[in-house]
Write a structure and sequence with these properties.
3 domains, Helicase, Ruva Protein, domain 3, alpha/beta
């Protein structure tokens, strides 16, 4: 008899060791709390412990709620909520001590709140509940049902469940920390998206000139549509800024904004960057990699410098625009995407089409809505506001209390042609703030190529201290622009094409402004 008992105890001990090993493997397999259901499955399958339930204490509400359960549906789990000290589970969590009930049908404290057991009077069910503790604090409870007739003492069950509860405690705490961090990152991400939506709204983009107001009007009109947008303009005019405004003002604002520059990626890599590649597609392709189109699914793909696409890439791009599907490099699976395309270029695409360097069918696919970003020289009235903004921002970045530009510096900044546009102005003002010795940016603080640009005599007269109070800044800029156009037309003897080249603007813009200011050549 003694040997028989010893053999039975040995078998039970080995069984428990196997269970503990299986549970440790399950807990190590994932950082998701869902893995706790696997622990309950193991207890039911290997130990006959049914309706396993894991409850956790919410530190904010002090309510005990079911996190995982075996043999319950979601409705029953939602009913399983307890206050501290309420029912057996509430008492275990409150006191931090295990409780074993031989027959729950005869126990008045047993609430059967989940109603998952049916008629308790028809069978003798034992209920075992042990606390889950971490760092000396009870954070939840583990409970199971077992038929009372089974030949294992409840105290042995309590011992086994207490061991499992200690294993679960570490796993639960780790998973709670991961979940808390995930929630924090989600909240931070939501806050950042909210900031981006505000930052990139056109109302917060500097540009009170008529040219920029026209841009903003079109952005407002098409932002909420799915239509493809083509942004045209010289480098540095703010095409990416407008692309982001289109995205963050659209219903896709919570989706990704993915940028790719066709000019910065070698021709041999461009296709794989756009469409991704399969493992083994080429030397070095050690694993599958999604392309920018896949990454932009549900959001916006900003294709910068689209004029630099190879003809081969243009063919694939055309298919994506037409059918919204493609294959990865080296793959045969067709991938469908929901992406809005915003393309940009500083090239004259219509001319590229005529010279057979850009596909005509792709051009018309991209050219659904076109937005022209004017160069800075065509919106000089925006320069003072841009200067103030860049000075303020650079002052904060470099810890300098620079407040404004002196008049001699502003004269140069307004008359300089800015071939690099807003980007050049931004870099110029950062340099000026760093070089400034006081609270004011002076002409000597500007880069040499800009400060040595001669300011026309009429500008000096116009901005002379004696006249400064009689003209608004906008009127002064307009007067300066009119005089520049007048002198260019006089110098070119009325030749608008030559005058436009001298001023660095198009003949169409020159004609428009000459008509606006009622200018005629005096030659």
């Amino acid at each position: 008899m003694t040997d028989h008992l010893k053999n039975g105890e040995l078998r039970q001990g080995l069984k428990e060791l196997n269970v503990l090993h299986s549970i440790s493997q399950a807990l190590a397999s994932s950082l998701e709390l869902d893995v706790l259901r696997s622990v309950l499955d193991i207890l039911a399958r290997e130990m006959g412990m049914e309706r396993g339930t894991l409850t956790l204490l919410d530190p904010q509400t002090q309510k005990i709620m079911i996190e995982a359960a075996k043999g319950m549906d979601r409705r029953q789990m939602r009913r399983g909520r307890y206050k501290l000290g309420e029912g057996i589970t509430g008492k275990v969590v409150e006191a931090g001590e295990p409780i074993a009930i031989p027959n729950i049908g005869k126990e008045p404290l047993f609430l059967n709140r989940t109603r998952s057991r049916g008629d308790l009077s028809r069978q003798t069910i034992a209920f075992i509940c042990v606390p889950i503790k971490y760092a000396g604090k009870t954070i939840g409870a583990l409970s199971v049902d077992r038929l009372f007739e089974q030949p294992v003492s409840l105290q042995e069950d309590v011992r086994l469940l207490a061991t499992i509860a200690s294993m679960i405690a570490q796993a639960v705490r780790l998973r709670q920390q991961v979940r808390t961090e995930h929630v924090r990152l989600e909240e931070e991400n939501t806050d950042l998206r909210r900031q981006l939506k505000t930052r990139y709204h056109v109302e917060n983009i500097i540009g009170s000139s008529r040219a920029m107001q026209d841009v903003f009007r079109v952005v407002h009109q098409c932002a909420r549509s799915k239509a493809t947008v083509l942004l045209l303009g010289e480098s540095g005019t703010g095409k990416e800024l407008i692309a982001r405004a289109l995205h963050y003002m659209s219903p896709r604002s919570d989706g990704p904004f993915v940028r790719i520059s066709a000019a910065s990626i070698p021709e041999t890599l461009l296709e794989s960057e756009l469409f991704g590649y399969e493992k083994g597609a080429f030397t070095g392709a050690l694993a599958r990699k999604p392309g920018r189109f896949e990454l932009a699914h549900g959001g916006t793909l900003f294709l910068d410098e689209v004029g630099d696409l190879t003809l081969a890439a243009q063919v694939k791009m055309l298919r994506v625009l037409q059918e919204r599907e493609f294959e990865r490099v080296g793959g045969t699976e067709t991938i469908k995407v929901d992406v809005r395309i915003i393309a940009a270029t500083n090239r004259p695409l219509d001319q590229e089409v005529r010279e057979k360097r850009f596909r005509e069918d792709l051009y018309y696919r991209l050219n659904v809505i076109t937005i022209y970003l004017p160069p800075l020289r065509e919106r000089r009235e925006d320069i003072p506001e841009l200067v103030d903004y860049f000075i303020s921002r650079s002052g904060k970045e470099h810890g300098k209390a620079v407040e404004r530009p002196a008049q001699d510096a502003m004269d140069v900044l307004i008359t300089y042609p800015w071939p690099g546009n807003v980007r050049e102005l931004e870099n110029c003002m950062e340099r000026a703030v760093v070089m400034a010795e006081g609270h004011v940016v002076r002409r000597r603080d500007l880069p040499s190529n800009i400060r040595h640009k001669v300011v026309p005599h009429y500008a000096e007269e116009r901005f002379h201290e004696g006249n400064a109070g009689r003209l608004s800044l906008t009127d002064s800029v307009k007067a300066l622009e009119a005089r520049l156009i007048q002198e260019a037309l006089n110098t070119s003897r009325g030749n608008q094409s030559r005058a436009a080249k001298m001023l660095g603007i198009t003949e169409r813009i020159l004609g428009y402004k000459a008509k606006k200011y009622k200018i005629v050549s005096s030659i």
